[in-house]
Amino acid sequence: MIKSPANIAIFISLIIFFISLTQVCIVYQYFEIVNYPSYLAFLVGWMHFWGGGFWEGCIWLANPLYFIGLFLLFKKNKRAVFPLICSSILALVFLSFENLTMTKSGRIAPIIELKSGYFLWLASILFITFSSIYLKVTEKKNA
Known about the structure:
By secondary structure, the chain is of the alpha+beta class. The protein has helices at residues 5-20, 38-44, 48-51, 54-60, 62-74, 81-93, 116-142; strands at 24-30, 32-37, 99-101, 108-114. Strands 2-1-4-3 form a 4-stranded antiparallel sheet. The radius of gyration is 17 Å and the shape is elongated. The two termini are 24 Å apart. Keywords: Membrane, Transmembrane, Transmembrane helix. The chain crosses the membrane at residues 7-31, 51-73, 80-97, 117-135.
């Protein structure tokens, strides 16, 4: 593997992402206080589309966009920045959520706190987004 700046940035971002999966990402109140682990949010977050939480499912789309961006960046595709920017926007939008929709009937659970899993996930996405923008800008200056 060539030690290009893009590959190093991808590696650092993935390390942060995988560390985030070992942490609690959110604490919410749903009959009792729930410490929701990040790996569950990653694995089953897409189910919110069918479980009543459409907007939460939209936020989960930051994950496939992140991996598409990583793949394109690894392949040196100039369009890698676009899915990464979209992923960053979706990940940042979650900061504005006050509740989670838990059922199709609309039952909600108030968010008590965002934990380290969320912030590490956000950091991994923002790191690779800004790295890809920086690499694109410096590539144009050097060309």
